[in-house]
Amino acid sequence: MENPPNQTESKPIQLNEAKKPKGGIITMPFIIANEAFEKVASYGLLPNMIMYLIRDYRFGVAKGTNVLYMWSAASNFTPLLGAILSDSYLGRFFTISIASLSSFLGMVLLWLTAMLPQVKPSPCDPTVAGSHCGSATAPQLALLYSAFALISIGSGGIRPCSLAFGADQLDNKENPNNERVLESFFGWYYASSAVAVLIAFTGIIYIQEHLGWRIGFGVPAVLMLIAALLFVLAFPLYVRRNVSKSLFTGLAQVVVAAYLNRKLSLPDHHDSFDCYHHMKDSDHKAPSHKLRFLNKACLISNREEEIGLDGYALHPWRLCTTDQVEELKTLIKVIPIWSTGIMMSINTNQSSFQLLQATSMDRRLSRHGSSFQIPAGSFGMFTIIALAMWVVLYDRAVIPLASKIRGRPFRLGVKLRMGLGLFMSFLAMAISAMVESIRRKKAISQGYANNGNAIVDISAMWLVPQYVLHGLAEALTAIGQTEFFYTEFPKSMSSIAASLFGLGMGVASLLASVVLNAVNELTSRNGKVSWVSDNINKGHYNYYYWLLAIMSFINVIYYVICSWSYGPLVDQVRNGRVNGVREEEELLDIVGKGFEKEDSSEVIKTIQGI
């Protein structure tokens, strides 16, 4: 009589197990497609937007550039808000879904500005004598700015959550190769995004230049609609993590509690677990030694009065958990390294000047018999190509070859990659300055000093090296920083980790505007021609680039200091490794293949001794 019940119980268990598994590789096409289509749509609008504002809305170059700086800043600041909403209130799936709808509506509004003549200034030729060309009215600008705002809101929800949502589908701590799986995912995710941006910089821009703004803005709107539909259709397949309470509320509670408990004395012994408030399943039984003044936020002074029977604090603004304290410490700890990426983003924000350079140069693929010209806004594709090629080569060639040479698994440390990327960014600006010096001398020698719109007899292919270096810099630093934040932060902060690099780009957009305005004001005093004059041949863009190169080199030194002071990474602490020694050993094994293991150890000891 016992067998039938056992048999009947076994069937539903098998059915539940068949339904239970979610996530995995099957979800990747939907998540990556959503991100890719969003990038094709949004990035396809950026390169030529300055021309749309100048020609159709009659903005000046300075005003149009500042509007684009503000739009870029908004698109990079909103991911922080999106990350907070995702982690604490809506969850990643619903945040991405709502954001996709917002982006679609914004692109529809922008398309309407091209379709409806009454929503922008009437056509006018300022070169015709007696013509009066009016500027855009307040309602017309309101519609334009609303489109930008909706697109920025959409970016704020998709960009921080998409990467973390994809990692949720693959992240499995029980898998011994989990770290390698995530690294590969991050690389391929950025590679697919890079291909999407490449399509935007070529196909969308070509449509805008040859078929007009109506089709050029309509195609991105259709692509955004497809992105939203693809993502929502896979709803049953996704792993969806539960949201927690507001992360920033918890961080604020730590600051307040640490201040209110400032007069308490910390225990002498770090292993006095009973002195600190922590949950039963917490990995942090006691807070770390760093930033010890924050430890008072979780210090228990009277257990009966401060902790309820359920184990939770009765007054959370006076007593926090060790997890809350460590989350705030982690955020504070990464700020210096995060700030080093801002300079690289400032360098990549110089697209308006690079567009003017490309416009004034010979953009034919071949200067002998070829009539096809690369659109000036499409030169950014070389950055994307370099980024994608590095990701593919690093994942499929560098790592396997280096591992084979060493006889054990190899990977470049994340801090080493970030540093190399920042150095590449410095080289990119130095080469930009040299190329612009050559271009300007050619323009003046050919009699174009007063004609900034003339085509100088010099190939625009001279611009390719700086774009390639920018791509390598982003491949090393952007991917490296994202991986760094994601691995250093606890799971509850994963979306914020993914949005931090974008936040740095937002800060960079504002600082780029400050630097540009300062240079323009200081160099145009006493009737002098500004370095960043509207006439590219009269100005000194090369001096401006050298200034950015010097700032970038100082930033590399600043990064070395920040990286050294940060100490061991989470993975290094977990594996019992000393910070930096592993990366030094890997480099020695690759560069000095002839070293014996004992010799390498002696060299490392010598370096450490120095």
TrEMBL record:
UniProt key word tRNA-binding:
no
Entries under Gene3D superfamilies matching the protein = MFS general substrate transporter like domains
Annotated Gene Ontology cellular components are:
membrane
State where it is primarily located.
membrane
Q: How does it sit in the membrane?
A: Multi-pass membrane protein
Say yes or no: keyword Transcription regulation present.
Answer: no
Which keywords are on file for this protein? Membrane, Transmembrane, Transmembrane helix
GO terms for MF: transmembrane transporter activity
The protein's matches in SUPFAM superfamilies, at most eight in alphabetical order, are given as: MFS general substrate transporter
Report the InterPro entries cross-referenced here.
MFS_trans_sf, POT_fam
Its annotated compartments are: Membrane
What are the transmembrane regions?
Answer: 68-86, 93-112, 142-165, 186-207, 213-239, 372-394, 414-435, 496-519, 543-567
> What family does this belong to?
Belongs to the major facilitator superfamily. Proton-dependent oligopeptide transporter (POT/PTR) (TC 2.A.17) family.
Q: What is this protein called?
A: Major facilitator superfamily (MFS) profile domain-containing protein
Organism, as annotated = Arabis nemorensis
